[in-house]
Amino acid sequence: MNEYLATRYGSPCRGCGYDWSIDEHRALAIVAELPARVEALVAGHDGTEGAVGLDWNVSAYVSHLADNQRIWADRLAGAALGSTAPVVPYDEAELAAARGYDGIALESASWSLRRSTGDWEAALALARDGDVGLRHPEQGDLPLGSVIRVLGHEAVHHAWDVARIVGA
Ligand SMILES: [Zn+2]
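^ thats the input. predicted complex w/ zinc ion below
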């Protein structure tokens, strides 16, 4: 159990209902299915849609999913390749502002999400060989199963955000 995130989001998550003790294989499947799930949700939309109470538009959530997945892939690959350095946290709101998430074409964001899912799977394959985990300054020690569950939550939570915007 990731106590830091379970406390921050609730256990289960107060928003999306994610159970932090989810089976690892189920979490992996959720991440693998994410690009198709998002593409189905956004079909017929142009990405500029937003909703009251949500910080970002559809394109921005898809870009966040892609970037966040790629960042976790980088972290995992680094550890698998021998790094013992702790994870360097990033500010997702600052990254969104720097990249101009709200203006990114939905086609670009969706393509990027598929690519980042591939990066994640490649990093996962590297990490599996050495049973690699990560050390996060806020979340503590994250064995591989915990990293997988963090990505599973991101997928469920932001697909829920997108679903709320498009009314799915
Ligand atoms: Zn959630």
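The chain is about 60% helix and 5% strand.
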